[in-house]
Design goal:
Layout: H1 2-23, H2 32-45, H3 62-92, H4 108-141, H5 146-162, H6 168-188, H7 194-212
Helix pairs in contact: 1-2, 1-4, 2-4, 3-6, 3-7, 4-5, 4-7, 5-6, 6-7
């Protein structure tokens, strides 16, 4: 049992280090392309499958999942764009720094490119990493009970937000709030990633459309 917890702690520590290295600019492109291979290696070494961390369509009514995912994704993005982000911007006297996405504004080709990358790297990638892998590992480390899962939800959401520090304090706190929302959906979905992936993808798609139209906070 003690050895298992040590292994879990090592896995979580490596995960956190990859997020930190990305946040400070040591990893080119995005953390997801480094964390996913690490997760794959970890699962292979422990003879686990991706379904063990929630990536499975078993017992999922896909039509219902898509509908719920679309609705919740729209709600998540509208809530972030028109409620929490303006409130946080007012508190910290700064809108999120979205300069990395400025080139999407008015550029249809860039809009489609970012939407495609977002579904692959953020919707699928980040949900596998932060909700599927990290939440399961943190919960297992602390006993896999209700309190452990609540702790897992909070800690993983904070780390997810901090991984977006390039957006400034307003941006990373907003990302933590969105991560909390996605984590709750993951738990309410029976720890299955299908609906969170759809929610994340739809939310980001709507965000990029608003950026394209110049209607998103932080886009000039």
């Amino acid at each position: 049992m003690k050895q298992n917890k040590i292994l879990l702690l090592i896995e979580i520590s490596i995960f956190i280090l990859l997020v930190v290295f990305d946040a400070v600019g040591y990893l080119p492109i995005t953390q997801t392309i480094y964390i996913i291979p690490f997760i794959w290696i970890t699962l292979r070494l422990k003879k686990e499958s991706f379904s063990s961390i929630g990536l499975s369509l078993k017992n999922i009514k896909i039509g219902k999942a898509i509908l719920i995912g679309i609705l919740l994704g729209i709600v998540l993005e509208l809530f972030a764009t028109f409620i929490t982000t303006p409130i946080l911007s007012s508190i910290f006297n700064a809108e999120p720094n979205l300069s990395d996405f400025q080139e999407i504004k008015g550029n249809l080709a860039m809009l489609f490119l970012f939407i495609l990358l977002s579904w692959v790297l953020a919707a699928f990638g980040e949900e596998i990493c932060f909700r599927g892998f990290l939440m399961n590992r943190i919960a297992a480390l602390f006993g896999n009970n209700k309190a452990a899962w609540i702790m897992s939800l909070v800690l993983s959401s904070i780390l997810f937000g901090w991984g977006h520090t390039e957006q400034g304090v307003t941006g990373w706190i907003q990302e933590s709030i969105s991560a909390l929302f996605l984590g709750i959906i993951f738990l309410k979905s029976g720890k299955n990633l299908t609906i969170p992936i759809i929610v994340h993808g739809v939310s980001n798609t709507l965000a990029f459309i608003l950026i394209y139209l110049g209607k998103y906070p932080g886009i000039m």
